[in-house]
Amino acid sequence: MTAVVRAIDVGFGYTKFTTGGAPADIRCSSFPSLACLSTRDPSASLGAERRRTFAIPIKGVFYEVGPDVMLAGDGFRATQIHHRYIETPEYLALARGAMRSMKVEHIDLLVVGLPVATFAADKAALEKLMTGPHDVGGGKTVRVRKALAMAQPHGALIDYADQHDRVLAMQEEHSLVIDPGSRTFDWLLARGMRLSHKRSHSVDRGVADILNLIADDVSTEIGAPYTSLDSIDHALRTGKALAVYQKAYALARMKPMVESIARQAVAAMMRRIGPAYDVRNVILVGGGAFLFRKAVKQAFASHEILEVKEPMFANVRGYQIAGDNYVAAAEARGAGAVAEQGGQA
Question: What is the residue-averaged pLDDT of the chain?
C-alpha cells in the first residue's frame, strides 16, 4: 500500500497544505489563519447557503476555520500572533481544518513547519501535538501515524532545488533562503541541504507590522479605529485602491514607511549572516515576498535574486517533497513506510 504523505504550514497569515498530486505537480491549497470561537457547532445552524468552513471541536467548544471564515467572524480579528502560537487551541484548529480539507482518514507521515528562531525549542512538542487521532469535526477523525517538523525556509530550499532540477548541483553551494511571513521574517543559510544554524534565524518584523502601520495611519485619517487588515493586505497584493468609507485611501503615501520596515528586517538578517560573498543562491519566497523584494535586492546588489512559482506555497511543497523522500528512504531500508510515534490522546 502506498504511504499517505501530507504537509501543513500553519502560518500567522494563512494556513497552507497539500492535498496530493504527483511529485512534479503537488496540489496545494490554503485558507486564512483565523479561527472563530463558538459554544455550539455553527454548521448545525446554517441554512442551505452554508459557508465553506469546518467546525473543529476542541475541549468542549468549536473553532470555525476554512476559506469562508471571514464570514463567520465579527469586527474583531482575534489572531494569535506570538511566539507560543503552537500551544494555542487556534493553532490546533487550523491544523485540523487543513487535515479535514485533505479528505483522508489517515496520514502515514505529516510534515509541518516552524519559524527558524523557535525550531530547536519547539520541534519535539509540535511533532507530539500532530501525532495521533485528530477529531476534525462532522463525526470525522484523521489519524496521523508520524509527524516530522522542519524549519520553514528549509522547505522552500528543497522546493527551489526540485523545481530547477539542481539538487545535485547545489550540494557544495551556499544558499540563502529569505522567507518574509506575516509575523516573522525568516532566513536560512545552507550548504547543499545542510543548514548553518548559527547563521539562520528569524526576527519579528513581518507583513503584520506593515499592515498595522497602515491601519494606524488610516485610523488617524478617519478619526476612528480601523482594523480591516485583510482589506489592506488585499489592496497591497492587487495594487487596487483601499476603500475606506467609500473613499480611496492613498496607499502610496505609506510607501517610504513600508520600505523602512522591510529594510529593518533585512538589516537584522545581514548582521546575522555576515559577509555574503560565499552565497551562490539568494532565494526569496513566502507570501510577503513582494513587500520585501526591493530591500532584498538593495542588500544583495551583486547577486541575482531567485524566486519560485507560487512563492506562498514554497515551504509546504518542500515539506511534501521531503516527506516523500523520507518514506522512500525508509522503505528502501526495509523499515516499512514510517515507524509510529506515541502522540496525543
Answer: 90
Q: Which residue has cell 507583513?
A: 207
Fold of 5-153+314-332: Nucleotidyltransferase; domain 5 (3.30.420)
Name the region of 265 (left: φ>0; alpha: ψ -120 to 50; beta: rest). Answer: alpha
- With CA atoms as reference, report the closest residue to 212 among 228, 200, 224, 197: 228
Residue pLDDT, tens place only, 304-315: 999 888 999 999
Pairing of strands 185-191, 194-195: antiparallel
**Do 5-153+314-332 and 164-206+264-309 agree at the fold level?**
yes
Closest CA to 14 of 228, 288, 261: 288
- CATH class given for the domain over 164-206+264-309: alpha beta
Q: Are 3 and 324 in contact (CB under 8 A)?
A: no
Q: Per mean pLDDT, which of 95-104, 322-331, 334-343 is the most reliable?
A: 95-104
Contact 69, 106 (CB under 8 A): no
Q: How confident is the model at residue 345 (pLDDT cuts 50, 70, 90)?
A: very low
Question: 184 vs 18, 205, 325, CA distance in Å?
Answer: 22, 5, 28
Backbone φ and ψ for 199, nearest 5 degrees, come out as: -100, 0
Strand blocks (E) in the chain: 5-10, 14-20, 27-32, 36-38, 54-58, 61-65, 106-114, 132-137, 140-151, 174-180, 185-191, 194-195, 201-203, 242-244, 247-249, 279-284, 305-307
Phi–psi pair at 41, nearest 5 degrees: -70, 110
Q: Can you give the residue ranges of every domain in the chain?
A: 5-153+314-332, 164-206+264-309, 208-255
For the cut 50, the answer to whether the pLDDT of residue 48 exceeds it is no
The pTM of this model reads 0.88
- pLDDT above 80 (res 340): no
The pLDDT score that the predictor gives to residue 338 is: 64
Q: For the sheet containing 27-32, what is the strand order? A: 27-32, 14-20, 5-10, 106-114, 140-151, 132-137
Residue whose C-alpha is closest to residue 13's, from 70, 71, 75 = 70
